[in-house]
Design a protein that fits this description.
The chain is α+β, with helices and mostly antiparallel strands and 236 residues long. It folds into three domains: 48 residues, Roll (Structural Genomics Hypothetical 15.5 Kd Protein In mrcA-pckA Intergenic Region, Chain A); 83 residues, Alpha-Beta Plaits (2-Layer Sandwich); 75 residues, Alpha-L RNA-binding motif (Alpha-Beta Plaits, 2-Layer Sandwich). Helix content is 20%, strand content 30%. It contains six helices and 16 strands. Strands 6, 7, 8, 9, 12, 13, 14, 15 and 16 form a nine-stranded mixed β-sheet that branches. The longest helix is centred in the N-terminal third of the chain and has 9 residues.
């Protein structure tokens, strides 16, 4: 029997690579222990069979952007805890090898309206983050809002022009009926509570709301509590 050693050390013995290269092989999901991929360089091995998968390269992981269908009412920290291999949407069409490293150092921006569910963007990619932050005032966000009550006369037209309520100016928003109980709102960089205030100003009460799109990126059919990767050709 030999004493357990770090997986990274075993990879160095196996390949003659540097310590950093060994860590990159492992973190990239290229190393198996008894046939199972292990992504932790500090994982301890004894006599198990350690091997590299075909095509293995010691390269830094590409930064990823994840799109979570966040349940209503969750704080950001709680929403991030939903991200795991198990909650990955099975029908995701993005051609990405799922790695645990994709859940590290994620940053979110463009928060949901309070109490809303739907599309939450979490990214490792500074380019995506800069795009969302710098173009926040230009990117249209789309919400589907369930309402009750009676719409005042010309209510939707008034929303499109902007409404003054108790010395507060509500900015113009685009709103249209999806069906008898649901409105679609399209608006740019909405302040917290804006949708609720707009609905109240025209005689409606919000029952629930869901963000379904940011810019050119839709949530799609991802179920609540699951996530998918941002596709290579998708642009905010």
């Amino acid at each position: 029997m030999t004493d357990p050693i770090r997986l990274s050390k075993r990879v160095i013995e196996l390949t003659g690579c540097s310590r950093r290269e060994a860590e990159l092989y492992i973190e990239g999901g290229w190393v198996t222990v008894d046939g199972e991929v292990v992504e932790q360089p500090q994982f301890k091995v004894e006599e198990q069979a350690v091997a590299l998968l075909p095509g293995a390269t010691p390269a830094l992981l590409e930064p990823m952007t994840l799109l979570l269908n966040q349940p209503a009412g969750l704080a950001l920290e709680a929403a991030q805890r939903l991200l795991s291999p198990q909650s990955h949407w099975p029908d995701d069409r993005a051609e990405v090898r799922l790695l645990r490293g994709h859940f590290a150092r994620l940053t979110s921006t463009l928060p949901l309206q309070p109490g809303a569910s739907g599309l939450l963007v979490l990214t490792q990619d500074w380019r995506a983050l800069r795009k969302l932050n710098e173009d926040a005032a230009k990117l249209e966000q789309e919400y589907v809002v369930e309402v009750t009550g009676s719409l005042v006369e010309n209510g939707l037209e008034r929303l499109k022009r902007g409404i003054r309520v108790r010395n507060q100016e509500l900015p113009p928003v685009k709103a249209s009926w999806q069906n008898e109980t649901h409105l679609r709102f399209a608006l740019k960089n909405p302040k917290p509570g804006l949708i609720v205030a707009c609905c109240a100003a025209v005689g409606l009460e919000v029952v629930g709301m869901k963000r379904i799109r940011i810019g050119g990126v839709p949530m799609g059919k991802v179920p609540v509590g699951q996530w998918r990767y941002l596709g290579e050709r998708e642009k905010f």
